[in-house]
Amino acid sequence: MNRRPTRGVAMRFAVVAALSIMLLFSAACRAQDERLLEPSAAADLMRVNRDNPDFLILDVRTAQEFGQGSIEGAVLLDYYASDFRERFAQLDRDATILTYCRSGNRSSHVLKMADDLGFKNVYDLRGGILAWREAGLPLIK
């Protein structure tokens, strides 16, 4: 007796398997992205932490870039400085830190570095200051 599944059953199985894999992958990506904040979510984080002395907005661009405009309250720590890692490592590992750069590339590396160093609450502005500006959010000079 031949118990081969029909073509329709095999096709449905393949579709269900593919959807299951996609859902698993999607869930993993969302978990990785929860610390990557869109500009509006970053602004909300800043608003919630306005009076929090353990909150830091960290601009990891160069001094020249910083001088062209920054997020109010941001502290400059140039990612390209030779002592960046050492200076970053001296920050409070329990503080809430929002980091950003021009486009999100450097700050994504800082997010990985924060993980490696044991920081607990570090967030990254997705798209950097370019996305912040595009969202119409304020900069100071």
Automatic annotation (TrEMBL):
Residues 51-141 form the Rhodanese domain. InterPro entries: Rhodanese-like_dom, Rhodanese-like_dom_sf. This is Rhodanese domain protein. Residues 1-31 form the signal peptide. SUPFAM superfamilies: Rhodanese/Cell cycle control phosphatase. Keywords: Signal. GO terms for molecular function: thiosulfate-cyanide sulfurtransferase activity. Pfam families: Rhodanese.
